[in-house]
Structures are given as C-alpha cells and as structure tokens.
TrEMBL record:
Top-level lineage group: Bacteria
GO MF terms held by the record: catalytic activity
CDD domains with a match to the protein in the record: HINT_subgroup
Active site (catalytic residues): 99
InterPro entries named in the record: HINT, Histidine_triad_CS, Histidine_triad_HIT, HIT-like, HIT-like_sf
SUPFAM superfamilies reported for this sequence: HIT-like
Species of the source: Zoogloea dura
Name of the molecule in the record: HIT family protein
PANTHER family registered for this protein in UniProt: ADENOSINE 5'-MONOPHOSPHORAMIDASE HNT1, HIT FAMILY PROTEIN 1
PROSITE patterns: HIT_1 (PS00892), HIT_2 (PS51084)
Domain HIT, residue spans: 5-112
Sequence motif: Histidine triad motif, positions: 97-101
One biological process term in Gene Ontology: nucleotide metabolic process
Length: 136
C-alpha cells in the first residue's frame, strides 16, 4: 500500500533503525518505545494482520522474532521479554500492517497492559540498532 508507514519503511522512503532483515521480514527499533531495545518485527509484504499471513510468512516472522528476542535479552540485560501482537481496532491494532512487538521487560516495570511511550533521539535509536545487529 502506498500510504502504509511500514510499507514506506520497507521501500526505504522513511528512516528506521534496522536491527534485522531477511527476504520476508524487517525488524527495527520502535520510535515510540516502552524501553530501549523495543523492536518491531514486520512482514515485508503488506499483510493487514495475523489472519492474512500464509504459513511461509508466518514462520518467517516468528523465526525472526525469536532471533531478535534473544538479541534484545542479551543486549539490554532485561529480566524477560513480552512478545505483543494486536489485530484489528478492538484488539488494539493501530498500524494496519502485521507486526510483533519485542518488549524487553524488567521485574516490576509495570508496563502492561499499557506502557509509557518515549521518543528517543535518532542517535540513541541507531546506537541500540547497531548493538542489536552485532548480537545477531
């Protein structure tokens, strides 16, 4: 879709602090992060939500998410991770392009069910992206 923000990131029209990329997926730091290291893993083709994924793309996204989650844990030193994915407005979906959140979690961080967003400067995002790339 021409106006989809994630499609525009895939096409290189918008900047992103990339963490991982393969044929089917792209992972980048969330610009509205819960904690440093909060990564979004997306399907490269435009698929609105979980329901539209075929088996190959679903497998690719979850394999990428697993790799990214390991890197997030290693780099951030978090106590755990939450993998979050929402479908449709009622499910909390706000960007209608399939994606998963990889949230670094810390004991008693009180993030969920909602988190306080921050907007770190691009330099901080790029630095974290480099550290995560190195861990992969």
């Amino acid at each position: 879709m021409d106006d989809c923000v994630f499609c525009r990131i895939v096409r290189g029209e918008l900047p992103a602090s990339k963490v991982y990329e393969d044929e089917h997926t792209l992972a980048f730091l969330n610009i509205v992060a819960a904690h440093p290291g909060h990564v979004l893993v997306i399907a490269k083709p435009h698929v609105e939500n979980l329901y539209g994924l075929d088996d190959t793309l679903a497998a690719a996204v979850f394999q990428a998410t697993t790799r990214v989650a390991r890197a997030v844990k290693e780099v951030t030193g978090c106590d755990g991770t939450t993998i979050f994915q929402a479908n449709e407005v009622a499910g909390g979906q706000t960007v209608f392009h399939f994606h998963l959140h990889v949230l670094p979690r810390f004991t008693d961080d009180k993030l969920l069910p909602f988190w306080q967003a921050s907007a770190p400067p691009r330099e901080a995002l790029d630095e974290m992206a480099a550290r995560l790339r190195a861990a992969l």
